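thoughts on my protein:
***
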Amino acid sequence: MTKLYDMVEASFTGILRTIIIVILVFYAVKFLLRLFAPVIVQQVVKKAEQNFYQQQQQYSQQQHNTNNKQEKAAEKKKVGEYIDYEEID
């Protein structure tokens, strides 16, 4: 049982090694983000632009379809000119 506790103890070199690894990983991630961030942002903006364009197209198609339906309904209502006739005795 005492051997188990001896193995769990942290050594100074182990702590120092862990701190160095954490710092190296931090700077590596920071470097990679600076390298790839412009490409990622460009792709996100491009995708948002495409979505916006598609939504505009869908909206304009809906407006066009609505206008066509209203015009057809108005055409159906135009039957002709109504004339009132009076009976002559």
Summary: Helices lie at 2-8, 12-77.
